[in-house]
Design goal:
The complex is a heterodimer of chains A (about 290) and B (about 325). In chain A, about 70% of the residues lie in helices and about 0% in strands. Chain A has about 290 residues and is mainly alpha-helical. The chains are: A mainly alpha (about 290), B mainly alpha (about 325).
């Protein structure tokens, strides 16, 4: 369950046996937070100056004014707009299909009865432990055979739906969709797909939204498979970043301007939706 | 048993009109037949996408990798030569393979053990009564959104041997500089720091959720018996967290043994797949990638992939069996309830 803020104020110990936080608790948490933010800040700091700052004994801790010019160089060095567009297309498509197929399968596994249901679900759970990343060699050969190497569909198709998505949605659907509602919809003459659309989907929306965010971030950050199957002319954001770094002489102001640019969109998503992401992780932990 | 909506058996539909007397041999209209077919076959339709996708891009490639590993095959070959288990025999005497195996396990241990300890501590901090609890939780999760590539680049810079900030601070404090890339153990530490930085907050939230789920009466009973805060933490909280901790260990095993992006981007020679000049931080997955797509020896790379695959499954299984044993031996201690 999501922890609710303790509403009852007691002086010594609250419901879960937790004491009211002391100053040193805040101190440690603040230290932790600074550690979490620092690498992002450092990346922006170097990007806003020029690489000569790295040679100074005591590096400056305030940003300089070169960020925009460094950012402009990123766009000159690699097809950054194209990579942003590609990443958006790939992550957007993968997110939509994963949410759609996972909620459908979750609905079937949680609420419908059919021959072989339990055995099939055991297979889904077992596949969670299969490191499919290790199948990239035949997968690459297959993509080359189809003529998809270098094309976006080569990155999209293998990620259309995931076992973890099906598993989560099944667990959540079991808890939130009452049988009475499904029954009532059936009696009113709804076909199965309309039961899914009008009864199941609205009820599982919070979990579906979390699955969507999680999928988007995973897909946005994916590296190994795009590196294998795409090329420098048609990259995703992560490939463009790697390309920036792989010159013989690394210009860190340029490279870190790239990482900053690539991090900003996902940071915005996180600031807006952080609460739901936290709630989703904590719910998944207890239910899974 | 025909398939149907999974309801409690014997319950009458509450809103249905009273059933009309049945004719001796019911003749279904096409609409009713359609409805029966709908109920019977739609579940398979709904789960089909997962099984099709998994079969085509998950199961088949993994199995085909095993088949490929029995051939000597270059990237551009169509056929390849059957060599039986030669690739595996070569692998056993391949010093680079053993180096990468040791590197992988070393980085994995350096990143898993401290991470879990810190995650539990952090969860305990977050489990106190804080102002704006959600704000702190969002804060500790922040590193999780960083892409591995961005992270690899930033940390490669921070740990740079000449102008890196970490060495600057070490020097300021009067220690010697460390060559974080050339020194084998130091490079493992640096890569483990990246992994830990990204995942500790995430795992702390999972542990925190499990802490919140511990029933309050267990703690209250212990308090009445006079147990102090630290005693309660070690004797109640930790044992009850065990299933969650093992879940965290298993998931980080599956991910951690396949670590690829961090060592690839940490290389002082960017774009290289060597994992350092003497492979000092090359991991198995990086070696597999190099063999397949740089050396272009697909058969040998498949053998590497398959060995890693078996290794992961075996370790996951050991973890699973350990979980069950620990869970059953842990049961009597839960008698405190």
């Amino acid at each position: 369950m999501i922890a609710l803020p303790a509403k009852v104020r007691r002086h010594t110990v609250d419901a879960t046996g937790a004491r009211r936080a002391r100053f040193w608790v805040y101190g440690l948490l603040i230290a932790f937070l600074i550690g979490s933010i620092f690498p992002f800040y450092w990346s922006f700091l170097v990007a806003s100056r020029d690489s000569s700052m790295l040679t100074e004994q005591v590096p400056p801790l305030l940003p300089g004014g070169n960020f925009l010019s460094n950012a402009a160089r990123v766009f000159d060095s690699v097809p950054f707009w194209k990579s942003l567009g590609n990443s958006l297309i790939v992550s957007g498509t993968v997110t939509l299909t994963t949410v759609l197929f996972s909620t459908l399968a979750g609905f079937a596994f949680a609420k419908l009865r059919f021959r072989g249901r339990n055995a099939l679900f055991v297979i889904v759970v077992a596949t969670l432990a299969v490191p499919t990343q290790l199948g990239i060699i035949p997968l690459y050969m297959a993509m080359a055979e189809f003529g998809w190497a270098g094309e976006l569909q080569a990155v999209i198709v293998p990620n259309l739906v995931t076992a973890i998505g099906v598993f989560w949605m099944r667990q959540y659907t079991m808890q939130v969709v009452p049988y009475e509602l499904i029954e009532a919809a059936r009696v009113d003459g709804c076909s199965m797909i309309r039961v899914y659309w009008h009864v199941c989907l609205p009820a599982v929306r919070p979990a579906a939204a979390f699955l969507g965010m999680f999928t988007f971030m995973t897909s946005w950050n994916d590296f190994l498979w795009p590196l294998v199957v795409l090329n420098a002319e048609n990259p995703t954001v992560q490939l463009a970043l790697e390309r920036l770094q792989s010159g013989f002489y690394v210009d860190y102001s340029l490279v870190l301007a790239g990482t900053t640019l690539a991090t900003i969109p996902i940071l915005i998503v996180f600031v807006v939706l952080g609460r739901q992401i936290v709630a989703g992780i904590m719910q998944g932990a207890v239910k899974g | 048993m025909t398939s149907s909506v999974d309801t409690d058996a014997g319950r009458t539909p509450s809103r249905a009109a009273p059933a009309p007397p049945r004719p001796p041999k019911p003749r279904l209209t096409w609409r009713q037949r359609l409805s029966v077919a709908d109920v019977k076959w739609s579940p398979y339709l709904y789960i089909a996408p997962f099984f099709v996708v998994f079969g085509v891009v998950g199961l088949f490639p993994v199995l085909y990798t095993a088949y490929l590993s029995l051939f000597d095959r270059e990237l551009l070959d169509i056929e390849g030569t059957w060599v039986g288990f030669d690739n595996y025999a070569t692998l056993l005497s391949d010093t680079q393979f053993w180096t990468t195996l040791v590197n992988t396990v070393s980085i994995f241990l350096l990143s898993t053990i401290p991470q879990i300890i810190v995650a539990v501590g952090l969860a305990a901090l977050l489990n106190t009564r804080l102002r704006t609890p959600t704000g702190w939780r969002v804060g500790v999760l922040l590193p999780y959104v960083a892409s591995l590539v961005a992270l690899g680049i930033i940390f490669a810079n921070l740990f740079g041997p000449n102008y890196g900030l970490v060495n600057g601070i070490l020097e300021l404090l009067g220690f010697d500089r460390i060559d974080w890339q050339a020194n084998r153990f130091a490079s493992h530490v640096a890569i483990a720091v990246m992994v830990n930085w990204r995942w500790t907050g995430y795992n702390a939230l999972i542990v925190l959720a499990a802490m919140k789920a511990i029933p309050r009466d267990v703690h209250e009973a212990a308090m009445i018996d006079g147990a102090g805060a630290s005693r309660r933490f070690f004797n109640i909280t930790l044992p009850l967290l065990r299933p969650t901790l093992i879940f965290v260990v298993i998931t980080s095993t599956i991910g951690g043994l396949q670590i690829f992006t961090e060592p690839k981007l940490f290389d002082a020679m960017p774009g290289s797949n060597n994992g350092g000049s003497s492979n000092q931080f090359q991991t198995i997955t990086l070696y597999m990638y190099q063999t397949a797509f740089e050396t272009q020896d697909l058969g040998y790379a498949s053998a590497i992939a398959w060995v890693l695959f078996v290794l992961i499954i075996v370790i996951a299984l050991i973890n699973f069996l350990l979980t069950r044993r620990l869970a059953s031996t842990g049961a009597p201690e839960d008698g405190a309830r």
